[in-house]
Amino acid sequence: MASVKIMIAGLLENTKIEVRQNVLLRSQLRGFQYNSEADLVVLHHRSEGRLLLTDRNGFYMDFLASVYRFMEGRVLILITDIEEDPPEGALVSSEIYELSKFGDQPTIGILGEMGKVVCYKNSPSEYQLSHIKESILRSAFYREPANYSRLPDIFHPTTNPNKFKCSLL
User: Fold this and answer.
1) For residue 132, is it within any domain?
2) Which own/partner contact pairs does 147-156 have at CB distance under 8 Å and 24+ positions apart?
3) Number of domains in the chain
């Protein structure tokens, strides 16, 4: 966890950045409601054994849905200690797409296709580092509209009845 924090701070060495670290227990993830202001939320998961990330049996489904809604898509998932690094020029390993297709976890595959997931064994490749840096800068300085297509309904802002945005022109 500390190495990810150092890596993120090192990517932006000439930029003032505040990285807050929270360790969540598995019991805290079910029914999780995110409500902290930030430019980007980075979820770091160390792969140990079978990956249960999203959907029916996933540890992070409630967490990711809540963060995605509140942060309007400004989330990045780092999965470390995977079995094999992805090929050069790729963000995600084949393990993630296998989970998506054959492991009843389609949401992690969708997030991977959206560029919201980065996987590596020991350290990210130059391509992955560049993507992580761009994601941080894009979240801090340029807010793209969130993409909700193909994500489960609980990721959509309409599932939060207490949050309604109206722009007056």
Assistant:
1) yes
2) 147/73, 147/114, 148/73, 150/110, 151/68, 151/107, 151/110, 151/111, 152/55, 152/65, 152/107, 154/61, 154/62, 154/65, 154/69, 155/64, 155/65, 155/68, 155/69, 155/107, 156/69
3) 1
Give me the tens of pLDDT residue by residue for the chain, a chain 169 residues long: 557 777 777 777 777 777 778 888 888 888 889 888 888 899 998 888 777 788 887 888 899 999 999 998 999 999 998 888 888 888 988 888 888 888 888 988 999 999 999 999 988 999 999 999 899 888 887 777 888 888 888 888 864 455 555 556 5
Per the domain annotation, does 34 fall within a domain? yes
Look at residue 7 and tell me if it is in a domain: yes
Integer Cα distance of 154 and 85 in angstroms: 31
Q: Report the half-sphere exposure of 9 (CA within 13 A, side-chain side).
A: 10
Instruction: Tell me the Ramachandran region of residue 146: left when phi exceeds 0, alpha when psi lies from -120 to 50, beta otherwise.
Output: beta
